[in-house]
Amino acid sequence: MYALSTECTLLISGAVSDASIFCMACLLSATGTQLILFRVISGLATSLCLPSAMSLISEYFPAGMLRNLAFAFMGAIANTFAVLSSWWKIPRSQAGDVSWHMLVFGIDWVGAVAASAALGLLSYALSSVPLAPPYRDINKAHEASTIICFSLSGDLLIFFVLWQSFQERRNKPTLIWNSLWKNLAFTCICVNEFMIWGAFNAFEQVINLFFQNVQDLSRVETAIRFIPTPITGQLTALTTRFVLHRCRADAIINITTIISCVSPLIMALVNPTWVYWRCAYVAICLKSITADSLFTVSIILIAGVFPAETQGLAAGVFNTVSQIGTSFGLAIVALISNQVTDQQSQIEDKGSPEALIVGYRAAFWTLFGMNVASLVVILFELRKVGNIGKKKTQ
Q1: What is the pLDDT of residues 109-138, one digit of tens each?
Q2: Is it true that the peptide bond before 134 is cis, omega within 30 degrees of 0?
Q3: 302: nearest Cα among 28, 29, 66, 67
Q4: What's the CA gap between 298 and 310, in Å, rounded?
Q5: How confident is the model at residue 332 (pLDDT cuts 50, 70, 90)?
Q6: CA torsion 210→216→220→226, rounded to 10°?
Q7: Which of 75, 36, 298 is nearest to 190 (CA)?
Q8: For residue 81, which of 93, 92, 69 has the smallest C-alpha distance?
Q9: When comparing pLDDT for 156 and 23, which is higher?
Q10: InterPro entries of this UniProt entry (predicted)?
Q11: Do 256 and 326 fall within a single domain?
Q12: Are residue 143 and residue 275 in the same domain, yes or no?
């Protein structure tokens, strides 16, 4: 639900340019309905924060180490620190009058509705095939309602692309300039963000089910095993900030992607009887490295190749792609895991740990393939990026 609400509103937020309260509310939710509601609102808050934060940092920090550090903190430490520090650290600017004419006629509301509806229908259809028993059912992908959602989503996406081209030719407001995709570096970064974030979130979901359904751990025991993820994520983002102006950006992404390929490979070969520290701990520690380093490098790259007036839009597009990748990644591994469990497992009880591990292994191999595919794109398409994040000389 978080990814759904975020991806449906990021484009609008990028054109208009506190999740902390609603994240805390998720922890205090007493029912499933409350949890879903607060996750939706949290996604809306994130969609408002990301493009605006991108524009603020690009405007008030010149290219160099301070901007790199600001982007690293934006990706690593998130909302609470930012909200508290913004009370006295964000530079004051001259307040202007609200232009309702600009709000009504300066935003492509037709494109916004079409894109949001398309992404909402697509995410709903992709989420129709759950991973966990007893809800696991591959046949839900063939239901009429799911097929209708896919069809309507495809039609709306085609309409959205054509509408954006029509608006751009007339110099009218657009949510996405199709000319953005002519920048090869930006296009490749978005493709990699799609695959890396899809693989990252799907990995967390599958390994979570592995702990609970195969190793029969409680929810609390499972949650404790994910503690290394935010720690390695923050360390990765900060380390990237310190080396980015000295090393080639494509080399950083290549190295971190290779490291993250190890995580699904380990879990695809793991023995369920092994203790946590033997393999699963290493896999969890390594998995977030690529996602956080790619986020930092990508945001700095966007700030460097796009003018200030389009950086919020580019950031909105970039983060929308990552959220769509999350939905696709979860759906793909759910389909593959369920299909393999149902067809290849020789065990009659398809909900048993012995049957589920067969599908989970297939899911981990799929995630390994997604990481390798991302590495191929980086090797061939981002080799000319070179150093970014350096201080510009006058």
Answers
A1: 888 788 888 877 887 777 666 555 554 555
A2: yes
A3: 67
A4: 15
A5: confident
A6: -30
A7: 298
A8: 69
A9: 156
A10: MFS (IPR011701), MFS_dom (IPR020846), MFS_trans_sf (IPR036259)
A11: yes
A12: no
Alpha helices in 170-248 (DSSP H): 184-209, 219-224, 228-243
Mean pLDDT of 339-354: 77
Q: Which of 45-54, 119-128, 321-330, 351-360 has the lowest mean pLDDT?
A: 45-54
> CB atoms < 10 A from the CB of 387, how many?
13
Global model pTM greater than 0.85: no
Give domain status of residue 73, yes or no: no
* CB contact at 8 A, 382 and 249: yes
Domain carrying residue 329: 182-386
Average pLDDT over residues 1-13: 51
In a domain, 211, yes or no: yes
State how far the alpha carbon of 192 is from the alpha carbons of 196, 288, 351, 382, in Å. 6, 14, 34, 10
What residue has token string 């503690």? 227
Q: Is residue 68 part of a domain?
A: no
Res 234: pLDDT? 80
pLDDT at res. 119: 78
- What distance in Å separates the CA atoms of residue 368 and residue 294, rounded to the nearest whole number? 17
Same domain membership, residue 368 and residue 220 = yes
Q: Is residue 77 a part of any domain in this protein?
A: no
DSSP state of 137: -
pLDDT in tens, 256-310: 888 888 999 999 999 989 999 988 999 999 888 888 787 777 777 776 666 666 6
Domain of residue 232, CATH code:
1.20.1250.20
| Last-in-domain residue among 150, 174, 198 | 174
Q: Any idea which residue has 């996604």 for tokens?
A: 43
Q: Are residues 314 and 356 in the same domain?
A: yes
- Rounded Cα gap, residues 61 and 70, in angstroms: 8
Which burial class, exposed, middle or buried, applies to 152 when counting CB atoms under 10 A from its CB (0-12, 13-18, 19+)?
Answer: middle
- pLDDT tens profile 26-38: 555 666 666 656 5
Q: Which residues contact 236 (CB under 8 A, 6 or more apart)?
A: 76, 256, 288, 289, 292, 293
Task: Please give the tally of structural domains in the chain.
Answer: 3
59: enclosing H helix or E strand? helix 32-60
Q: Based on the domain organization, do 262 and 168 belong to the same domain?
A: no
CB distance 228 to 284 below 8 Å? yes
Return the structure tokens found at 218.
Answer: 């409680």
Average pLDDT for residues 40-52, to the nearest whole number? 57
